[in-house]
Amino acid sequence: MLEKLKRLLGADTNSSAAIETALAEIDLEDLREAQSRIGSERQAMLLSGTNEQILEAERRLDGARLDLERATLAHDALTTRLQDAKAREAEETIRANHASATAARSSYITKLERELPRIAKTLEALFEEGNAIHLQVKNANKPLYEGNEELGLSVLTSPSYRLGETGKLAEIPDWLLGLLNRHLARW
């Protein structure tokens, strides 16, 4: 028993899984039962056995007691190691998740720093073009509002209205559509 316990305590038991495996090899209940059984055998020999038989039973009982005490100490030591290993593994998981999130965040920030100025310039150019066209459309619509129906020209609508007619609005995310509509609301 002592050699088995030394092996279990000295084994590579750094991971909680390895420690749980080692703990599973220590059967304290079985050792308690063995000690109780040997104690009962010794009791029975006191009135019927020879001195040698009684001494042999006492030697076996002492061995069973020592096995149980050693196994209990080993079990307690491994239980402490298990708690420490689980705490360490939980910390390692937290640190690994944090490191992964930090790397993903950093990569995303780099991407935003690279892409947003380009996107902003594109939107800014579209909105500036929209402002210029707005004046052009406003000037083209003015005579139509003043009673020149005989020309047969239709009033020009806003770009967002036209995009709605063509079904293109469905392709635009809501947040961008809101930005576009706010910009083009004055049409």
List keywords for this structure.
187 residues; mainly alpha; 82% helix
What does this structure look like?
With 187 residues, this protein is mainly alpha-helical. The protein is 82% helix and 0% strand. It is built from 6 helices and no strands. It has helices at 2-10, 16-24, 28-48, 51-145, 159-166, 174-184. Helix 3 (28-48) runs antiparallel to helix 4 (51-145). The mean pLDDT is 87.
List the helices and strands and how they pair.
Elements (H helix, E strand, L loop, with lengths): L1 H9 L5 H9 L3 H21 L2 H95 L13 H8 L7 H11 L3
Helix pairs in contact: 1-4, 2-4, 3-4
Order of helices and strands: HHHHHH
How much β-strand is present in the residues? under 5%
Q: What shape does the CA trace take?
A: rod-shaped
Q: In total, how many beta strands? A: 0
Rg of Cα set: 42 Å
User: What's the total helix number?
Assistant: 6
